[in-house]
Specification:
The structure is a homodimer. Chain A is of the alpha/beta class. Chain A has 16 helices and 15 strands. Chains A, B: GO terms for molecular function: DNA binding; pyridoxal phosphate binding; transaminase activity.
């Protein structure tokens, strides 16, 4: 046994079963109200019509849809990705610069493979996506946090962070950022800051990996123009079908600057050859043959109502000392309790009380205790949202009280 | 531009667009007879019945099949993988030890992530799968070739290779081997050698990654027991739906020793979260609801006829100085021309003559010229196979003549 474990790589030994993963396992308990998982709402997809497409893809196109495809992705899927990106706010993406991946986690992984050497730094907003942090660990990268407020990245702090890293002689592989309705914070980076962030990264010669799964889930119906829209040459832009259609098909993509595309594509191919041909064809059909923007508008409205319910319940049941970012889009509400509360500990009490959230420790590379937590409203009915907040209220309010 | 390219990692700069990839691009020309690509034959799948399954998966199970799944793979797909492995010759695989991946390339990649540190050695049979070589490059591993003959790995040479590497103080991450109807050689490692290989690796404390996509494509109907069947504790065994069902769904898996499973699974999750839920459910249905062994038997017979046609055409049209391994299963025929022939150069002449093969240089980490080539018969009609060999005959025969 111990000899067998000598086979493990340093990076494998370094990957921890994350707190969020533990939570997801626990959250399967049907007696709990889970505010943990950020699943999209799929019940309102046009499943009957889509099932006809799914059938045709096998009956009429099976020898294509079930066969090997090309490494960069089908022409049709890359064009469909450009259609989706146009709705994101990038009207002129070139399919030649798109690489299709089996979900955008694989695109994050490919970015590490293509741009990062072991020991490099990846600068991340704090808090950031837990899945990205895990990937950075497996590539033996140091995730260095840079400060955020309720509008996301703080440009001055980013400039300081990059200056400090340069002074320390560190190679920064890239800035990883989710500017629109971020996971986990829900924060929306204003346009002016986007330009500042781009200029700062340009000044420091640092590449930006812009991850935008939630950009179209804008409650006011107006996605904010991505950084890549105006600063294409220095941005690798990641998109996905997961939140606007289906995460189960595992289709994401990267829009890569021309000078870097070939290596990005070969790096991707070395990891998985190509994304499922069938999934690409089903996703292409969803974009080309269905009212996909109508579906996005519909679920966005649903998410907005759920976010409003959640905010209302928090205001009613939780101590007003709990601060939170009022969601303007996306799937998540980020709450900050008074300093001194350890939400990782609090999670166990929450589970005893019958509801589960993800503690903030999951979303930061910074060690120590954290008084933050994430609530996901995307997949939870209004009734359950209220019930979850109600169940957590004594746990939250007592934790707050103990800090006084 | 040059500044942008500074963003590339060392490994990305090291990944070459492979000769085989160039060939695949060229091979798309419909005027060429392509003996390059190892696609499975899908026309005889029960596409009409499968299309009903595909439809039901959306219409009746869409909120599950299109949703996020668990990182290790669905219970049902892991059980189906065990059913397939039982037919491979591993009757007692435990679904708990199976990790589903988006194709087995991703499983090879995960093995590197979980078991290899940068600078480690991976020992490979020579020749070996080009896709694995590319993956090893991206993980900054040294692929060290160990000798083979027409029955695959030569145990004595493996022992010498491992002894030498130990003397040199190198860490060997694992032996990567395709013992049954290997890509590209088609060689079948006899059972006695399998035990020897296992014993040698055990002696040296070296893990085995056994890749077995072709094991069931045995022309005599009797797959040879995998190394993992009798030496489970020291073998990570890779299986796939690609050759027995569909490569387009991108479903592969690893059967991992219990002591290593957790890290393997977390490494996989960090790369792609999970394989397509829909693809897993479609593949599960193929195994559970269809006569999948009947399909495998049918296509195996087809591949056997094609291999026979190819062998017959070579014997008729090519100089007898061309040696080759008579395929007993799988998709490929491996030919060796007299020393001094450079098949990479010859490829261009072959294309002018109207047919394309993959030169041996693609399949080896050993630099220099190679007189070997791979012909794929799996996807080519008997007529085209004969025509391809006939077109290549003057090119091959002149190259042989020049060595005299």
């Amino acid at each position: 046994m111990s000899q067998l474990r000598d086979h493990l790589s340093q990076r494998a030994l370094g990957v921890k079963q994350s707190a969020v993963r533990d939570v997801f396992d626990i959250a399967m308990d049907p007696n709990l109200v889970s505010l943990a998982g950020g699943n999209p709402w799929l019940d309102d997809l046009p499943l009957t019509e889509l099932s006809q497409t799914a059938a045709d893809l096998v009956a009429k196109h099976g020898t294509e849809s079930l066969q090997y495809g090309t490494g960069q992705g089908t022409d049709e899927m890359r064009a469909a990705a450009c259609t989706v990106m146009a709705a994101d706010g990038i009207p002129d993406a070139d399919p030649e610069h798109v690489v299709i991946t089996p979900g955008s986690q694989a695109a994050i992984d490919t970015a590490c493979r293509a741009f990062a050497n072991p020991g490099d730094v990846v600068v991340v907003e704090d808090p950031t996506f837990v899945g990205a942090l895990t990937t950075f660990t497996t590539w033996e990268l140091d995730a260095v946090a840079t400060g955020t407020d309720d509008q996301g990245l703080v440009p001055e702090q980013l400039d300081e962070t990059l200056t400090r890293l340069k002074d320390e002689g560190r190679r920064v592989a890239f800035l990883y950022t989710i500017p629109s309705f971020a996971n986990p914070s829900g924060a929306l980076l204003p346009t002016s800051r986007r330009d500042e962030v781009a200029a700062i990264c340009q000044k420091h010669g640092v590449l930006i990996v812009e991850d935008n799964p939630y950009g179209q889930i804008a409650f006011d119906g107006n996605p904010v123009e991505p950084i890549a829209a105006r600063h294409r040459d220095n941005v690798v832009y990641l998109g996905t079908m997961s939140k606007i259609f289906s995460p189960g098909v595992r289709i994401g993509w990267a829009l890569v600057p021309a000078a870097l595309k070939r290596e990005f594509y070969l790096s991707a191919e070395s990891a998985f050859i190509h994304a499922s041909t069938y999934s690409q064809m089903l996703s292409t059909s969803f974009v080309n043959d269905f009212d996909w923007t109508g579906h996005v508008a519909h679920v966005t409205q649903l998410y907005r109502e759920r976010a409003n319910t959640l905010v209302g319940a928090i205001r009613e049941h939780w101590d007003p000392a709990v601060e939170f970012i009022d969601p303007r889009g996306g799937f998540f509400l980020w709450a900050t309790l008074p300093e001194g509360v350890d939400t990782l500990e609090m999670m166990a009490e929450g589970i005893k009380a019958g509801a589960v959230f993800v503690p903030g420790a999951a979303f930061t590379p910074v060690e120590g205790t954290h008084s933050t937590l994430r609530l996901a409203y995307s997949f939870v009915s209004a009734e359950k949202l209220t019930e979850g907040v109600r169940r957590l209220a004594p746990v939250v309010n007592e934790a707050v009280a103990r800090t006084r």
